[in-house]
Amino acid sequence: MERLGPARYGRRMRVHLLDVAPRPGFKQHIPTLTLPRVAGCTPAGVDVAITDGRVEPIPSRIEADLVGMTFNCNNAPHAYRLARDLRDRGVTVIAGGTHATAIPDEVLEHFDALLTGEAEGGAWAELLGDFAAGRMKERYSNPGPPSLAGLRPPRLDLLSRRHWYIDFAPIEATRGCTHDCSFCFNSTIHGAGFRTRPVEEVVEDARRARSRRLMFMDDNLCGKPGYAKELLEALIPLKKQLFFQTHMLMAADDELLRLAALAGTRAVFVGIESFHSDSLSSVNKGWNRIRDYRRYMDAFHAHDIFVSGGLILGLDHDTPDIFDQTLAGLNAIGLDSAAINLVIPYPGTDDFRRYDAEGRILHRDWTRYDGENLVVRPALMSPEKLFEGYHHVIREFYRPRSYLRRMRWSGMPSRWYLYAVAWLREPRLRIVRRGLP
Ligand code: B12
Ligand code: SF4
């Protein structure tokens, strides 16, 4: 790896990486992989520190030559303010990550430079090299998605140990997805296509992990069933517990489920999205077939795998019936836990451009682009009806009686703790009176 010399300062360059959040929350978080990965591909000779704003306060004085920030859309306004303060104090501030990749022109108004796409592959090293030589440009990116073979280990050692993280080791095996759902950010960050890491390198990371519980940060671990089977089989001897995101179609492959169970899979997150087939087709997810949901859930449960599902309310074919339809559907398939969100077209996506062209974007307050607030005018109901129905679905789904009924029905008594954790941590249970613009 390239080494950066002390040419500019007469000492080692200091880089501080920040995961921006307005304030640390009270709940524990899963350790992030994003900034440890960026730190991992930082050239030798540079001192790197990480502050994860979700779990620790961002220091009021940062002693660094260069600050690199990552942030989601809803934390962007806070990141912009922070960048302005740091730049006023003479610190060079650069941005990276999903939001910066999606709308670079807006982000660049607040930062000295930005890196779009992934840090590996040379782009980050080039930025730092140019900065050290006093010739930093405004924009950096790789010519194409970098290879995932031989990635340097993520600097998880830089995450603060004093703060609240759940006992999980973050890990990744793939990037990208084999699908192209219109609301998803995947192709924006990773480009089209699905890349996999060599199985032996993932297994080595799993072996070295400090926790027994592995949380895969992949978008769709089972996007390529052949690769997933090879990986899961290789993980069996490690006797770890696995948690990952996958598509529903995984449950159609019994061999895959069997290997997942043997490898120690405890829970998966799947995109259910909707119980309305036209709404599914409208977001390019017509391949999710509602008639198969129940069969798939039974298959996951038969292997003792807890299933959390993502749902979106307010899609373009949703009428006011969607709320009861969704609740009936959720109870009928026996989904264990759910992340129920309102439609959020993230700026920079085709969905955003379409809603904008139709004059349906209600506001551009990025802090409210979090799935709990209304962002677009629904097509077939009033915004008030959608907001009310959204809260109704959450209240009913998490009503202790219906929750316990689904828990008994799944036939997984050994997984009681996952139900308890999912219920207690569900942020959407805060039934708040906000969200209408
Ligand atoms: C795993 C994951 C989670 C996990 C864990 C998050 C964590 N602890 O880090 C969980 C389940 C908790 C989660 C929750 C949420 N998530 Co999430 N999540 C992801 C996912 C699938 C992968 C992220 C990841 O770790 N990738 C692996 C790392 C290595 O890659 P990376 O983050 O892209 O970083 C690389 C590059 O982007 C770049 N880079 C990134 N930052 C920087 C900074 C600098 C300075 C540089 C140089 C480079 C750089 O270099 C890195 C290495 O290559 C992404 C989808 C995706 N493909 O990005 C969504 C995603 C990031 N999540 C998203 C959202 C909306 C959420 C939630 C708000 C959902 C909700 N409504 O509750 C919450 C809030 C989380 C929070 N408060 O932080 C959105 C963000 C959209 C946006 N622009 O705002 C995404 C993009 C999914 C989507 N909808 O398409 N998430
Ligand atoms: S299947 Fe999931 S990860 Fe893949 S494109 Fe669709 S929403 Fe994104």
Any key phrases for this structure?
about 425 residues, alpha/beta, Rossmann fold, pyruvate-formate lyase- activating enzyme, 6-stranded parallel sheet, globular, binds cobalamin, binds iron/sulfur cluster
Short description:
By secondary structure, the protein is an alpha/beta fold.
Strand content: 15-25%
- Topology as H/E string? EHEEHEHHEHEEEHEHEHEHEHHEHEHHHH
- Determine Rg (CA atoms, Å): 22 Å
- Do you know the CATH architecture of the largest domain? Alpha-Beta Horseshoe
Can you list the ligands bound to this structure?
cobalamin, iron/sulfur cluster
Q: Please give the largest β-sheet.
A: 6 strands, parallel
Shape: globular
Strand order of the largest sheet: 2-1-3-4-5-6
How many individual domains?
A: 2
Report the structural category.
alpha/beta
User: At the third CATH level, what is the topology name of the largest domain?
Assistant: pyruvate-formate lyase- activating enzyme
CATH superfamily of the largest domain: tm_1862 like domain
Spatial gap, N to C terminus:
50 Å
How confident overall, as mean pLDDT? 91
Number of strands: 14
Low-pLDDT parts are: 431-437
Number of helices, where a helix is a run of at least 4 consecutive DSSP H or I residues: 16
CATH level-1 class of the largest domain: Alpha Beta
Helix residue percentage: 25-40%
